[in-house]
């Protein structure tokens, strides 16, 4: 089943939002009434007029959809952050088990100026396909690698998500992407020599973030980076979720 936006849009993103809204209304609209039930007809008519949803119903659907989008974005944030490690993990998996290297292939959809990609990866004579399209081949390949890993080595994915050492690299990449100065770490040591405890703080964007105590300076820096990165991504995610609503307010007045 496919859904197509019925009105011209200024951008591909706006058109996609329009189509997504139509699909959402389709699947959340009340079921067709039983022809023999007058109560069902009355209930259905209370929400529709000439086959179109009443404004109250449209607004409720839109608000629910915005909330769902924000929730999905938050739940998937961790996976998006870690996605560029999946190809490396799959490569390591192949080397450890002495099987052929992963081979990727991609399919393309959309016009040349707005192409989207979905990839498959073949490893040990088995093929695994990504579940969605991405704006870059690199993202699509990582998504396919993740699908393969979830079948071949699910524990590896959990280890990546829990490994605090990754957050130091992630934090540095985030600062570089945003054109900000690189993180600066400060570590203090306490306790006896045989039982030293290290606590690190990292300064990014003029703000300091302190991690939990650790047995080594290196681990303390990792923990500080994890706190900073998590907080920054939470702030960014909150801004994204508040910006979702205007995109759907533009659809007010559209007739479905």
Automatic annotation (TrEMBL):
Pfam families per record: dsrm (PF00035)
Compositional bias segments (type: Polar residues): 36-55
GO molecular function: RNA binding
Top-level taxon in the UniProt lineage: Eukaryota
Cross-referenced PROSITE patterns: DS_RBD
SMART domains in alphabetical order: DSRM
Stored InterPro entries: dsRBD_dom
Keywords tagged on the record: Repeat, RNA-binding
Keyword Repeat: yes
Disordered: region residues: 36-59
DRBM domain sequence ranges: 85-154, 166-234
Alphabetized PANTHER family for the sequence: DOUBLE-STRANDED RNA-BINDING PROTEIN 4 (PTHR46031:SF16), PTHR46031
Official protein name in the record: DRBM domain-containing protein
Organism: Gossypium barbadense (Sea Island cotton)
